[in-house]
Amino acid sequence: MASSFPSVSELVADARRVFGQVFGEETPQVAVCAPGRVNLIGEHTDYNQGFVLPMALPLVTVVVGSQTFGQDVTVVTTTEDADEPRRVDFRLPTDRLFMSPGSPSWANYVKGVIQHYRAPLVSGFRAVIASSVPLGGGLSSSASLEVAFYTFLQQLKPDDGDKVSKALACQQAEHTHAGVPCGIMDQFVSVLGRERHALLIDCRSLEATPLPLADPSLVILITNSNVRHSLSGGEYTVRRRQCEEAASVLGMASLRDATIMDLDEARDRLDDVTYQRACHVIKEIERTVQAAEALKRGAYKEFGKLMVESHNSLRDLYKVSCRELDELVSAAMEVEGVFGSRMTGGGFGGCTVTLLQAHAVDRTILHIKERYSGTPTFYVTIPSEGAQVLSLS
Ligand code: GAF
After folding, report:
1. Within 13 Å of residue 158, how many CA atoms lie on the same side as its CB?
2. Is residue 88 within 8 Å of residue 77, measured between CB atoms?
3. How far apart are CA 39 and CA 185, in angstroms?
4. Residue 162 Cα, ligand 1 centroid: separation in angstroms?
5. Which atom of ligand 1 is nearest to the CA of 52?
6. Is residue 31 scored above 70 in pLDDT?
7. For ligand 1, is residue 47 a contact (CB within 6 Å)?
8. pLDDT digits (tens, 9 = 90+) for 92-107
9. Residue nearest to atom 2 of ligand 1 (CA)
10. Could you tell me if the CB of 186 is within 6 A of ligand 1?
């Protein structure tokens, strides 16, 4: 019923086959992978220095490749949805010269990571990318590519940083080369995700608390609306600016410490839209902390209620949902055994995440299929490990 997706070893086999075809080399020196993510709650709070509660997915991006002697870089992607051409050739920039982003867009993530890599790269490489993270599905295909590529470069030339600095470098790549002023959530969980755990990330201190999430009676269902989402369209940037504007009117560095009372006191200095955006962020940070507490207690009903409140706020106050995501959430909530459902990620399309009792999965999928006006794709997922180096034997 739910879609099956290729395993890590299948992706590696695919990438190795293409590597052999393109470069005529039997075995690449290195193989790595990094996961996409689903955010359970805490949406559009990361760039407000708030809390988020994502988990890493078993959907991953794999990179295989080898170092070469010159300065030449060749990267090939096997991703069918990626824009053409699927092969790029360029030279490593000397003295960190800025490599301008351009076309194809998937290569910008690679260039961005090379640009922000925390050690000087001395020789070129050949690499092949293969991924099971749907592009534009709001499951952080871009962060998983950035983190996988960074992990690949670490095998060629070790850097001097820790895992958090790795996530920060990948976030910079997204800022400068994809043009999205994203927060830290996606790259952070792609690097530091833990098997069988969600991560409560404090996006101000950059500390993460792993929360066990491996109850066999519980299922995390992702439903892809198959409405392609893109954050580079400008709406994301607009939301971020509105939050900064609200914080500045409140005389604060961010909305992290603001209360609804603070916001109401400043009501006549804020336009309606900015007020609503800030209201979402302040309450969403609170909801995320409450949801983490509920998860610790195994209070899934309470968790689910907070998920729905989060969705409604993203729809009504933050205005980043769309008709299709609203339909998916309403349909899921009609099924007995479903605790909660919400859009996940940046919004404007992409996926919903639903928390439900394991025995209700099949009927939930059936019901959503019946009720949804589009063609959804389903993934039953488990919290997975962050970026890893893989054995090639
Ligand atoms: C996107 C961004 F990349 C994240 O940083 C985060 O802001 C998210 O949208 C919304 O919560 O995934």
Report:
1. 3
2. no
3. 9
4. 22
5. 11
6. yes
7. yes
8. 988 778 888 999 999 9
9. 182
10. yes
Question: Which residue has a Cα nearest atom 3 of ligand 1?
Answer: 182
Identify the pLDDT of residue 274: 98
ipTM above 0.85, yes or no: yes
Residue 194 in contact with residue 56, Cβ under 8 Å?
yes
What is the CB neighbour count within 10 angstroms for residue 154?
19
Q: Which domains does the chain have, with CATH numbers?
A: 8-211+384-390 (3.30.230.10), 214-381 (3.30.70.890)
What residues are labeled active site? Answer: 186
Ligand 1 mean position, distance from CA 346 (Å): 5
- CB 342 less than 6 A from any atom of ligand 1: no
Among the listed residues 220, 188, 230, the one whose alpha carbon sits nearest the alpha carbon of residue 46: 188
Query: Nearest CA to 38 among 53, 25, 21?
Result: 53
pLDDT band at 90 (very low <50, low <70, confident <90, very high): very high
**Atom in ligand 1 nearest the alpha carbon of residue 44:** 11
- Structure tokens that stand for 37 in this block: 């993510």
156: number of Cβ within 10 Å: 20
Instruction: Read off the pTM.
Output: 0.97
